[in-house]
Amino acid sequence: MIESKDLSKSFTTGKGKQAKTVHAVSHASFVARDGLITxxxxxNGAGKTTTMRMLCTLxxxxxxxxxxxxxDAHKDAVKVRARLGVLSDARGLYTRLTARENVRYFGELxxxxxxxxxxxxxxxxxxLGLQSIIDRRTEGFSxxxxxxxxxxxxxxxxxxxxxxDEPTNGLDIMTIRLLRELLKNxxxxxxxxxxxxxxxxxxxxxxxxxxxxxxxxTVAQGTVDELQQRADAADMEEAFLKLAFPDQYQEHFAQGAxx
Length: 259
Ligand SMILES: Nc1ncnc2c1ncn2[C@@H]1O[C@H](COP(=O)(O)OP(=O)(O)OP(=O)(O)O)[C@@H](O)[C@H]1O
Hints:
By secondary structure, the chain is an alpha/beta fold. Helix content is 41%, strand content 25%. Strand 4 (63-68) and strand 5 form a beta hairpin. Helix 3 packs across helix 4. The structure holds adenosine-5'-triphosphate. The site of adenosine-5'-triphosphate (ATP) has 13 residues, from strand 1, strand 2 and helix 1.
């Protein structure tokens, strides 16, 4: 289970008189449960990546708590990392290493034995269809190939929780479908999956629960149906606009009504 408890994060940019504080995340609270896919849905700049970085132990919260299976991501970072697989927005791979070496290295960092790594590697190569690229250096890999290797790396230690930042970014429809199937299988095996997105189709295709985040704050959590009912909306897009931008939606609606 992954929990954001009143999380906040501010950044200071510039120095002296030029200094400015950016409130990237303000009092974000939600729960992503085991055996469910939870989508963190928000517009550009809403604070999705910053929230996920706090949950992944990469960024220290200014306030609040990031919890993974009840463990504090800041205070118990090593234990949290052992229980978490992360597909970050960067998908950074070591280009001098082969795909297999990249994945193996992460297994070693997690303290796995060589035998356990090779066992998991075989499963992931098969699951992700990596046969033709696993022993190639990752230099020059396409976006889809990079995503698959980064996902294998995130899953090598078979973590109970998975965090994916905009996982379908830049992928073709075949690769998106493969990813969706994989995530559904992982959900069936009881894993807790939290993904960020701003794509409505992604939410409709995958999410059991949706958390809407806007201007750094979580504004609603529920199933697609619950959110549509709550916003009195015909579809998820309308529900999202009404819940994430209530003032602008009203203004736009009022203007539309006058025309
Ligand atoms: N290191 C940083 N320094 C200063 N400001 C930051 C930093 N990281 C994030 N921000 C700001 O915090 C806000 C939230 O950014 P974040 O990347 O978390 O949003 P997002 O929802 O992931 O956006 P997108 O969908 O565009 O990737 C933005 O205004 C961003 O400019």
